[in-house]
Amino acid sequence: MARVLVVDDERGMRITLTEFLKEDNYEVHQAADAQAAVELIQSMSFEVVITDIFLPRTSGVDLVRRISQLSSFTKVILITGQPAVETAAEALRAGAFDYLSKPVSKTTILQVVRSAVRITILEQEKNQLEAENLNYRRELERQVDLRTSALLESEEKHVALFESMPVGFGYFRVIQNEAGDVVDFEFLELNHEFESIFGMSEAETLYHCASEVLPGLDNGGRIWLERFAHVAISGETARYEFYADHVDCWYYVTVFCPKPGYFVTLFDDITALRK
């Protein structure tokens, strides 16, 4: 039920307007002056305030300004027995919803109040929706921040674990021609141990092809390329021994296929076992 406040120092006018409004199912309160009106507005919300423009110790226009400060949604309808264009203009500039001249008929006052209530409710609903959307965006941003932090933490743990592995780790993508033959492979991920084994830097290898990184593959290099390609295509797991002259070490190499077209290599130092 919409709540309406009637402000007028004439008791008869307050009673008449109150009866009109109650018949239209509004909750109606009364105030004889601006101070009493302000006290009521501070204690409860009103969709509409109907006030005489001439009030004791202040004016209805000043009351309009005060109500605008207290409640941005409350609509104020000004009533006067001495209408003037200047007064009406001042009232509207102050934020009045409408300006009516006495005598005011029941039909007119109810029509204006219904319009004011409808607009007030729409504005309140709009404000509530905007507030809910704002809260939703803030909660969404909070969840994104939490998940991003969790991902970063997870990534940091992944990197720490990845780099602390005691074996050389390499992850590659196989490149095939139209006939399905393996012609190259791309470096996707390497740890520091792998780089040190082959004397390669991350900048030189990541997202580069073997033909770019190792342009002059000898027969031995091509044999290893064929072995890796076989694992990537067949999906089998293979194990070999490998000598890295760059560091003068022997490694036990495990090659497996995590998914079609890709392979992983693990280089485990077995130099001590061969001595």
Task: Provide an overview of this structure.
This protein has about 280 residues and is α/β, with parallel strands linked by helices. The chain has helices at about 10-25, 35-45, 60-70, 85-95, 105-165, 190-200, 200-205, 210-215, 220-235, 270-275, and strands spanning about 5, 25-30, 50, 55, 60, 75-80, 100, 170-175, 180-190, 240-245, 250-255, 260-270. It contains ten helices and twelve strands. The strands form three sheets. The chain has a five-stranded parallel sheet, with helices on both faces. It has a five-stranded antiparallel sheet with strand order 9-8-12-11-10. Strands 4-5 form a two-stranded antiparallel sheet. β11 (about 250-255) and β12 form a beta hairpin. α2 (about 35-45) runs parallel beside α3 (about 60-70). It is rod-shaped and about 115 Å long. The mean pLDDT is about 85.
